[in-house]
Fold:
Amino acid sequence: MNRSLKGKNILVTGGAGFIGSHLVDKLSELQASNLVVIDNMFLGNKKNLAQALSKGIGFCVEDAEIASSLEYIIKDNHIDAVFNCATKALNYSFVNPSNAYMTNVNIINHLLELQRKGEFQTLCHFSTSEVYGTAAYEPMDEKHPFHPTTTYAAGKAAADMMLNSYVNMFGVDAFIVRPFNNYGPRQNYSGNLAGVIPTTVYKIFNNITPEIHGTGDQKRDFIYVSDTVDAITNLFQIMEPGDSVNISSNCMISIREVIEKIAEIMGYKGEIIYKDRRNADVDSHNASNEKMKGLIHFHPIPFDEGLQNTIEWYIKELEK
Structure:
C-alpha cells in the first residue's frame, strides 16, 4: 500500500476537537490540496483551528451523525480521504449512555456506506484503547481481546467491527488507528467531560483541591498529542485495508503519579482529595507499540517533557 496525502482533498470529522485539531494542523503542513473540517462543536472549539483557518481550510459546523450532512460535504469537496475523529467524550457515556454508543456507530455507518458507494477512496478511523478494557495480558497488542467497560468503548468496538466487515464484504480501503491516552494542549479542561491532566491543572491554578477517584493506582499509557498525529499521518501511507495499529509511547504511569507530578511542577503543596472509584474504570492500560515501530520511525516526547509543555500551555490559556 502506498498512499499520499499531498495534493489530496481531505475531510476530518471532529476536526475542531483536541486530537482532531492537531491532526488538521499536521495535514495542512503536509500540503493537502483541500482540507475540510466538520464538527458539531459538542466539545470542539473554533479557536483550536485558528492556525488552520488562517490558511483557508473549509470549516462546516455540521453533525457527522446526519448522513445527508456528510454526503453533501464529501460530494461538494470531492473528498479523497476521511479521517474520522468524531466522537463523544468517554465521561459523556455516564450521562447519556445510549447516545455515547450510537454516536460512534452512526458516524462510521454513514461513512462506510458513502465509501461503499464510491464517494471517497480512503478511510482512517480513530478507535480507542478503551475497546480493550483492563489488560488481560501485558503489554496489550493488537490481538488483545475486546472487553469494553463503557457504552462509549462498546460503540467504538462496534465501529471497529463494522469497518472490518465492510472491508471483507466490499473491499473498501479503510483501516483503524487505536490511540492510547492522549494529553497535550487544547484538551478540554473544565466540566465533567474534562481529562485528568487538564482538569487537575485547572483546579490547582484556580485554588481548587485536586481529586483522585479510587486509589489512584489505575495505570494509563500516555502519549503526547503531536506524537499521535505524526504517527498517524505516517501510517496513513502504508496501512493495509482492514488492519489496525496501536498508537502509544510505552509510557505507563499511575493516575496518582500524574497528579503528583502536576502538583510538583505547579508548586502545589496542599492536599489531594480521594473520592470513590468511578464505575467501569479501567485498571491498567499498558500498550505494545511494537507493530507501529515496525512500520514507521517513532521517537515520542518523554512524558515529563510533554507534561511540562502541556502545563505551560494551560497556564497561558487560563491567564487570559
User: Anything to note?
Assistant: The radius of gyration is 19 Å. The longest helix spans residues 97-116. The longest strand covers residues 173-179.
